[in-house]
């Protein structure tokens, strides 16, 4: 066959005509129903290669050789070119009229060509070049305008780099005299662009896509959850397709700050294509306009408009996903395509799905906010009322309760999570969502072996792999195995580099390991990726505070509060006020925090500290500390290996008059995490309160070696007094750390599980 490398070439016919399509091989112009179509040069060359051999199989290798020269490309570039041709020609891959896919072999042109008719043009006058931009146009409310028969429920939009062309705004077949120079200029620019791309391959070569947040159209902002939820479901479904790399989910707050140029997006996100969509919901109808764009050229590979009943949204999502996969990987075998469709239809009850999406929105927005978590659970409950077998809603309750327990140490939440996870497992044994939740459940209860087993199962699902790796990292971090933890975190980041949550978890691990610089770096990266997260700004402020950078901490807390007041940021902000001696302001902030979350022992303990600092309110402190000690005790019954909480409990106990139990907690915390920064600080405070200055000095030394800044140590009145007494007595006696036995009972089981599942070791 004659080679086509993207150059002009000399095909035997200048014009090919079939159906309502005309192809000018010399001018590189394709019209459909008299309307010029935007088409990338490589796709145009593929079409010519097929047209020159009508009815014949043209193998994939032949096409790659003739169009791309087989240089630094993968079959995915051909698949994308075929997808663009189908979009331009209005061809359906399930019922093709023009291009037939011969699976694993190649393609054939099966349309009926009209006989040659010389060089006579069917339409007189100059036409828009296929690779140049068409006239600018805009659809209503930012929608992607569509083109096709009314009422068909699906249409192909005419796309160009300058924006989509609405049917009523399509370029006419004749141009007025004044427009002629513009048309010639565009034609020349298009040919130059085409010539410049002769040897260029679409990149990156691997099949990859970013799913942008779907845009919700209309004035009812209460419907935003629906568009957001559809994008998340689409992202997770595509991430589960073997061979397709999907960029990390992009929150709406981060997407708003991204450059909207497709080529820039591709470079920023490291993907070959971008999927975006607009969603308009009116009553029981929903209109979705979806578009897949090539990040190397900026061209639209395809655009579709769906106008259907809300109850048909599952099938619509499945069709969009199938189009994406076909464009990047080729048509899936029927069983895999059906599996993809099932993943996008976790229920067939539209009301249950609505409630579930609302619950997931609340869970994403505020994973550590008590009110938001309550709201999420209520929506999941409503979804289960509509569909009692909706396992994802049941798993959502489990995840919400675990988030409450992890962030707020609320023992009741853990018991609720146990029940919800058990029910979800009965509904869908082996589901990756349920396995991930069960991994978290066992991790938070200290059962490392079972947790590792469930994480290993969840990790087999590409959509769940990053979260499973984070869970594995947290298992090792809890045992003080920071190198192993870091290896898992970095593997998760490698899979999902733009995931702000993973960077946030890494920051927390760096903080607990005493690496405050590393923690600050990780949290700063997290807020860059997701600047609208109140929790991440609060955490960044927390590590600034731990590093003694109070000014930076205050700014981060204020940024968090501006987004949404949460109990965590109110409590952290109170510590700054307390360090500056403004105990009344600290008490006010902490009481507001407790209004949002009354089950967190840390908030009660901090309130006790603020009350204790002011002689006027010091008499109220024991009650707050006693409440903190009781709640912390309930938490430690579930997670007995939490060294930091054990150390904090010792402080709460000594301030509520329980001196012997306080000393027991100091020893327990020392056994579990002798080298941790927070253990050093809290144990030092407890021993100072018990009057044992030598022991307090030892734990101050531990805190210093773990990276706690001197300003934070001296901000505590009890520790400041110990240091002043020591200075008056003479040189410091900073003894060596005692040797404590390692943690027992779970390490060997988890290590054996890792050997069985082939987990990496640093």
In brief, what are we looking at here?
This protein is an alpha+beta fold. It contains 32 helices and 14 strands.
What does this molecule look like?
- With 762 residues, this protein is α+β, with helices and mostly antiparallel strands.
- It has four domains: 15-132 and 188-196, Arc Repressor Mutant, subunit A (Orthogonal Bundle), CATH 1.10.10.10; 208-343, TolB, N-terminal domain (Rossmann fold); 350-573, Serine Threonine Protein Phosphatase 5, Tetratricopeptide repeat (Alpha Horseshoe), CATH 1.25.40; 642-729, Serine Threonine Protein Phosphatase 5, Tetratricopeptide repeat (Alpha Horseshoe), CATH 1.25.40.
- Helix content is 56%, strand content 9%.
- It is built from 32 helices and 14 strands.
- The strands form three sheets. Strands 8, 9, 10, 11, 12, 13 and 14 form a seven-stranded mixed β-sheet that branches. It has a four-stranded antiparallel β-sheet with strand order 1-2-3-4, with no helix packed on it.
- The longest helix is centred in the middle third of the chain and has 18 residues, at 391-408.
- It is elongated.
- The two termini are 53 Å apart.
């Amino acid at each position: 066959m004659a080679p086509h490398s993207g150059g002009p070439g000399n095909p035997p016919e200048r014009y090919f005509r079939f159906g309502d399509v005309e192809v000018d091989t010399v001018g590189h112009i394709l019209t459909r129903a008299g309307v010029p179509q935007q088409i990338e040069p490589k796709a145009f060359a593929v079409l010519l290669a097929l047209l020159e051999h009508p009815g014949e199989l043209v193998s994939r290798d032949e096409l790659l050789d003739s169009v791309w020269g087989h240089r630094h490309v993968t079959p995915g570039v051909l698949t994308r070119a075929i997808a663009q041709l189908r979009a331009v020609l209005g061809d359906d891959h399930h019922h093709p009229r023009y291009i037939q896919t011969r699976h694993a072999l190649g393609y054939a042109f099966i349309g009926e060509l009209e006989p040659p008719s010389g060089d006579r043009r069917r339409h007189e006058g100059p036409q828009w070049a296929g690779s140049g931009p068409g006239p600018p146009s805009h659809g209503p409310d930012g929608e992607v305008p569509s083109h096709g028969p009314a009422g068909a429920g699906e249409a192909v939009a005419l796309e160009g780099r300058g924006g989509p062309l609405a049917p009523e705004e399509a370029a006419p077949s004749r141009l007025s005299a004044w427009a002629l120079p513009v048309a010639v200029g565009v034609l020349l620019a298009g040919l130059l662009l085409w010539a410049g791309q002769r040897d260029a391959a679409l990149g990156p070569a691997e099949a990859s896509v970013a799913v942008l947040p779907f845009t919700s159209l209309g004035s009812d902002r209460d419907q935003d959850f629906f568009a957001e939820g559809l994008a998340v479901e689409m992202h997770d479904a595509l991430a589960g397709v073997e061979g397709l790399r999907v960029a990390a989910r992009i929150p709406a707050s981060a997407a708003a700050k991204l450059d909207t140029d497709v080529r820039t997006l591709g470079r920023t996100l490291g993907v070959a294509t971008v999927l975006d969509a607009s969603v308009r919901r009116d009553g029981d109808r929903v209109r979705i306009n979806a578009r897949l764009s090539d990040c190397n050229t900026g061209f639209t590979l395809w655009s579709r408009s769906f106008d259907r009943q809300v109850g048909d949204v599952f099938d619509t999502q499945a069709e969009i996903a199938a189009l994406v996969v076909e464009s990047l990987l080729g048509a899936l075998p029927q069983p895999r395509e059906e599996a993809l469709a099932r993943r996008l239809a976790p229920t067939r009850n539209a009301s249950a799905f609505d409630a579930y999406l609302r619950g997931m929105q609340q869970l994403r927005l505020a994973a550590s906010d008590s009110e938001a978590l309550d709201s999420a659970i209520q929506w999941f409950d409503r979804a289960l009322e509509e569909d009692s077998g909706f396992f994802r809603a049941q798993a959502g309750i489990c995840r919400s309760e675990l988030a409450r327990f992890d962030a707020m140490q609320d023992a009741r939440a853990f018991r609720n999570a146990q029940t919800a996870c058990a029910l979800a497992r009965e509904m869908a044994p082996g589901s990756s969502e349920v396995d991930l939740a069960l991994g978290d459940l066992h991790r938070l209860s200290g059962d490392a072996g079972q947790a590792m087993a469930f994480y290993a199962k969840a990790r087999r699902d590409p959509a769940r792999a990053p979260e499973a790796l984070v869970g594995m990292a947290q298992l090792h971090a809890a045992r003080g195995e920071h190198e192993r933890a870091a290896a898992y975190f970095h593997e998760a980041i490698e899979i999902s580099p733009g995931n702000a949550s993973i960077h946030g978890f890494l920051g927390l691990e760096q903080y607990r390991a005493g690496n405050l610089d590393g923690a600050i770096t990780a949290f700063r990266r997290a807020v860059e990726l997701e600047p609208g997260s109140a929790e991440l700004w609060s955490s960044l402020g927390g590590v600034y505070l731990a590093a003694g950078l109070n000014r930076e901490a205050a700014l981060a807390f204020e940024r968090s509060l501006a987004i949404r007041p949460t109990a965590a940021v109110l409590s952290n902000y109170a510590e700054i006020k307390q360090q500056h001696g403004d105990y009344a302001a600290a008490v006010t902030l902490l009481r507001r925090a407790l209004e949002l979350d009354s089950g967190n022992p840390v908030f009660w303990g901090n309130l006790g500290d603020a009350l204790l600092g002011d002689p006027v309110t010091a008499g109220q402190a024991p009650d707050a500390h006693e409440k903190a000690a009781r709640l912390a005790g309930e938490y430690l019954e579930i997670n007995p290996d939490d060294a930091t909480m054990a150390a904090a409990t010792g402080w709460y106990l000594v301030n509520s008059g329980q001196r012997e139990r306080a000393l027991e907690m100091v020893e327990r915390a020392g056994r579990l995490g002798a080298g941790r920064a927070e253990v050093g600080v809290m144990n030092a405070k407890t021993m100072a309160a018990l009057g044992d200055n030598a022991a307090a000095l030892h734990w101050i030394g531990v805190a210093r070696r773990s990276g706690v800044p001197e300003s934070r140590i001296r901000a505590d009145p009890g520790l400041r007094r110990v240091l002043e007494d020591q200075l008056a007595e003479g040189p410091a006696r900073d003894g060596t750390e005692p040797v404590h036995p390692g943690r027992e009972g779970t390490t060997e089981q988890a290590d054996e599980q890792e050997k069985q599942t082939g987990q990496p070791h640093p």
